[in-house]
Amino acid sequence: MKLLLINGNTTQAITDKMADAARLAAGPDTHITAVTATFGARVVSSRSENAVAAHAVVTLAAQHHHGCDAVLIGVSLDTALGALRELLPMPVIGMTEAAALVACTLGGRFGVITLGKRTLPMYEELLASYGLEKRVAAVEGVDIETRDYGDSRRIADGVVALASTLVQERGAEAIVLAGAAMAGQHRELQARIQVPLLDGITCGVMLAELVVKLGLKKPQLGSYSHPGAKEVVGVDPDLVKLYRRAEG
Amino acid sequence: MKLLLINGNTTQAITDKMADAARLAAGPDTHITAVTATFGARVVSSRSENAVAAHAVVTLAAQHHHGCDAVLIGVSLDTALGALRELLPMPVIGMTEAAALVACTLGGRFGVITLGKRTLPMYEELLASYGLEKRVAAVEGVDIETRDYGDSRRIADGVVALASTLVQERGAEAIVLAGAAMAGQHRELQARIQVPLLDGITCGVMLAELVVKLGLKKPQLGSYSHPGAKEVVGVDPDLVKLYRRAEG
Amino acid sequence: MKLLLINGNTTQAITDKMADAARLAAGPDTHITAVTATFGARVVSSRSENAVAAHAVVTLAAQHHHGCDAVLIGVSLDTALGALRELLPMPVIGMTEAAALVACTLGGRFGVITLGKRTLPMYEELLASYGLEKRVAAVEGVDIETRDYGDSRRIADGVVALASTLVQERGAEAIVLAGAAMAGQHRELQARIQVPLLDGITCGVMLAELVVKLGLKKPQLGSYSHPGAKEVVGVDPDLVKLYRRAEG
Amino acid sequence: MKLLLINGNTTQAITDKMADAARLAAGPDTHITAVTATFGARVVSSRSENAVAAHAVVTLAAQHHHGCDAVLIGVSLDTALGALRELLPMPVIGMTEAAALVACTLGGRFGVITLGKRTLPMYEELLASYGLEKRVAAVEGVDIETRDYGDSRRIADGVVALASTLVQERGAEAIVLAGAAMAGQHRELQARIQVPLLDGITCGVMLAELVVKLGLKKPQLGSYSHPGAKEVVGVDPDLVKLYRRAEG
Amino acid sequence: MKLLLINGNTTQAITDKMADAARLAAGPDTHITAVTATFGARVVSSRSENAVAAHAVVTLAAQHHHGCDAVLIGVSLDTALGALRELLPMPVIGMTEAAALVACTLGGRFGVITLGKRTLPMYEELLASYGLEKRVAAVEGVDIETRDYGDSRRIADGVVALASTLVQERGAEAIVLAGAAMAGQHRELQARIQVPLLDGITCGVMLAELVVKLGLKKPQLGSYSHPGAKEVVGVDPDLVKLYRRAEG
Amino acid sequence: MKLLLINGNTTQAITDKMADAARLAAGPDTHITAVTATFGARVVSSRSENAVAAHAVVTLAAQHHHGCDAVLIGVSLDTALGALRELLPMPVIGMTEAAALVACTLGGRFGVITLGKRTLPMYEELLASYGLEKRVAAVEGVDIETRDYGDSRRIADGVVALASTLVQERGAEAIVLAGAAMAGQHRELQARIQVPLLDGITCGVMLAELVVKLGLKKPQLGSYSHPGAKEVVGVDPDLVKLYRRAEG
């Protein structure tokens, strides 16, 4: 199968890191194509940056989805997830949603660890929007600025410390890593953490493979069916085309 | 005061209708400036159209907020509301949020009526994201396509019938009209409905005036404070500038 | 417009403090009439005192509502709010509800600060009864007895310390002051607090002005419509009269 | 033991009906004293009547609690329940709360049937305030005016029909009768209903006996401990005395 | 009346301790028969042990319920509660549910204290399954291994310390003791705790007496009615017989 | 990988049907071993039958898990799911949980269809216990007795009719089939239903493959870690051994 990985951040290095993690996770027959947002924030980490990124993600999807079997959204806020599910004919998976759903297969509540403190409410809102708030033990953030996202050791130590707190004081029985910049880092961190550690890209690739294999029908009714022929203006021609397509 | 009304739909007629309703609602010292999205759907009525509209709304805000005292978002899905609240130095109000909060001042649960059936889950999710789901009696939609939004009589009859059901069978003690295309229409419909009828634009203008008068401080911490100097690329120069501005 | 401010406490000094705050908040055309409970606790700060105050508030409303355009309840537990909304023909606003709803226009969760620890569960229950529990970050109380309510400096320092905790540890993005004895005190405290600070009387006056301006219809059905002609005995004659009035 | 039954309605006939039901439910050593509100509505069935009744109930409790082992509130809205629990040294039980808690011992969700449609939201709010909303299948009301509360057959047929609907369509596995005017009526109705039928007065008397037998300690801290010496004015001298009493 | 007390643990000493507590709580006409699980864990304190205990409890009930008026489940996880309610013709009470429901008659939220930390999520889930999560202030566990359950002083000191924390920091207005091994221990501990302390066996016996006295009908429909004639194989002959019995 | 499929019903034909569906779903390298409960109900469809089945499932797991990479529970009530997750060293998946989690990857709320009406509350409770109640549109049951579970056409027509209601009236955007007896039947039914149809066994096999591939760590702390060396008596020797094993 062919999986389109869309990075909603405009930083190629993050795309590369996610693509590497994706390829490690993918089955032998899965081909990963990774694309990077052409406009918006270098690292999406605020509400407004996320709003702009949604358009960037929708645009990339319109341009690159042809021939793909599934799409994986590579921003830890799962930017534009509902939008793509509605618009595209193939399954779409969000990286943080994927890790959260896999965490659910383990039982109990999971903790979430992200980078920085500012976005904590945004992750709480995201997981609540998935109807999963009762499964969330707590969301914590490593105290770090976006400019230090490359400091892997500092991130690693921060994650390990927060995980310990989440497990021992908040009742977390698994930990979800939420942060595109940490993609794949669970491999080195798991040994230092007492409960299962879930990575969004890794879970997302496998969940995408699963849903493709299931061969589910595109909904023909409801808010996730294709919106039908709609007139949109001033956007990428590929996106215009996607709206012109007949429903179904 | 000067109020910027941002229409996230690319239809000028909707802007005009909302601006008319806004001017009827506004105090004598309130000046309304209404702007229309330059890209995106004619009438936002699906998840993907809403995602694109968020960027359009953010862009219009960046271009036109200078000199304004408050911003009112004129899309009934309150598109990009959190984004603008974070990014702009002045208060931002969403039209549906405004009607919902004013409905809360009446006590009990309110019903919500929109146009079309497809978006019902989106309004339920929106109100849940505001933490108001316990105040919502039910969300119903007039069975109509976007191309018939100009048929005022059909809309009026539909709203009256749904309102009656919501009041008598679902325990609604007020009704919120959710739909930019119905802006100001409560004036003619109220007489046919047994409980208070709330219009988003009307409530939004007055709530914007209230918040401006309160003179509240911009948060200096948290997810609604300015994100600080951030590098964003490929977007409108006014938006780039907004991110470059020092925090506070 | 004419606004009736009802103090459910039997302390004139609190009425005066609230009336001062109300007049500072009111528009040029708003006339405030403030009345004080004639029976009950000096400072309502327990469940039983609140139960008695409800009757006092209803009685004052029956005696003084004629000719008023709206009523503002000046007890931070919003005593008898639903009762007045049902019984009176004009809008009724509760001071804590008002501050909470205005806080909602800012986005995110708000913290609540009151005086004393004993009433914390009562405020949690009050906000839950408004369906707003998901918007409440936490409720905290300045550790102070009712006899020290005049010690403004101690209250101020207590509020500032609690606000800092609520913002940094509990994710509050705004703070609601709940306490009639603190009416208007946000003016001096805001500078020391990093997020917007909301005062019940100030928000209540403005929200009352807004709802009056909206000119909403009195519900003709439901639990907030007038209960119709009812026989009540042993209560204030003005209250008896209010129940005798034909519905609508 | 001696049980004080407080009717918050000012109708002696309802007191008598409840006292009869209470005596049928009581153990051989339980002595019931029933008192009737001296002011307020004939039949409490609206928010404002309930607010006034709270004061009447608190006053009756202050006057008559001496020498009693427990208090049962005889209004189906459990008027002033929290107030009495805080203020009195002995246990206090609400009739509808009692039936709801006993229904919980049966497993599953219970339906609630009251008289009239107007108060439905008030019962929903009451049960939600007890934290029991997940146990409530639905609340329904027999379509009847207070003046027809004496028409037992019409009430009986209405209850049976609603119970059937609640069981078959809403998943109710027990039925709570909420209405002082139906006290004891479960005895004749149970045979016509397929699931257990709970009467507030019957359950309330037995639960009061249980809690007295348990001999629980009065809380010394928290919002249900005695509020301590407080100055209250203009109220019944017995109530003033109750506030003057030293804590504990 | 005759009450069957079923210990789901395979430790006779726990049965004896619970039976002692039950006899102290029971009325003069209540006869307690206590039986002990014949297979499963010595002390049920994990998910899998609880799963096995459910079968043991159902089997004991099938063997011993004849001639009993009610059944009390003596495992603090209320093992097989719903199963017995469905299958048996008489009322069934769970010890922790009983204490929780009696705690509800006191108003406010209650804290729960158990033995050990491992089972905390299981008690949170149990109380949530009763729809009581909003009444739970927090669940805490005395830090002790099952082999030290006989160390009464250590348990006592642990409970007193946790109760103090629950009352002062988590807003608990009552405390529920959850642990068969602590049955009856509230008698000695109450004096050291500032709010009412509830013991499952004590509350359970009295609640069983109450429900028997009420004489409620067995449901004839729904998930708690008898499942009807069913073929079950490989289980205790008394259990097979219980399924063969005609419905109702 | 080797997957152990445990049928908690004592009917071999159901095992065979589930095994067939499992083999159709499995990848080329997945080997399915299916075992059948040796005691308990022919078809688990009540609370007490489910309680007994839990022991049967735990026993089968103890006997057959050696050499397996994952376990799939083949009862649509996911009997003993938490118990096995705690006790076994390998991943355990429940069939209904699997379908529900895969439904979550599609966005929006899903409807659930089972066989019979009696178990509806049990499925609602099951999904609520997973913290997924906000994702459930409604649970409906085909009106059929267990003796008619072989009537595929009647089941098929019932499912199609209920699915249509769930989609059009309850807002379901996907449908979960809950019923071991319908395993694999989605293949023939999907064409008649407008939204994706999820089968528990199919989703469960694939989710088990996914989790095995992830290679997650067994928790070393918390309520899903191995309970440690425990003395259990009177149960299958393989189960005794499983408890004797050192932790981890």
Can you put this structure into words, describing what you see?
The structure is a homohexamer of 248-residue chains. Chain A has 248 residues and is an alpha/beta fold. Chain A contains nine helices and ten strands. In chain A, the strands form two sheets. In chain A, strands 2-1-4-5 form a four-stranded parallel beta sheet, sandwiched between helices. In chain A, strands 7-6-8-9 form a four-stranded parallel beta sheet, sandwiched between helices. In chain A, β6 (110-115), α5 and β7 form a beta-alpha-beta unit. The mean pLDDT of chain A is 95. At the E-F interface, β3, α2, α3, α5 and β10 of E face β3, α2, α3, α5 and β10 of F.
Topology at a glance:
The structure is a homohexamer of 248-residue chains.
Chain A: E1 2-7, H1 12-25, E2 31-36, E3 40-41, H2 47-64, E4 70-73, H3 81-87, E5 92-94, H4 95-104, E6 110-115, H5 120-129, E7 136-142, H6 152-169, E8 174-178, H7 186-189, E9 197-199, H8 200-214, E10 232-233, H9 237-244
Parallel strand pairs in A: 1-2, 1-4, 4-5, 6-7, 6-8, 8-9
Helix pairs in contact in A: 1-8, 2-9, 4-8
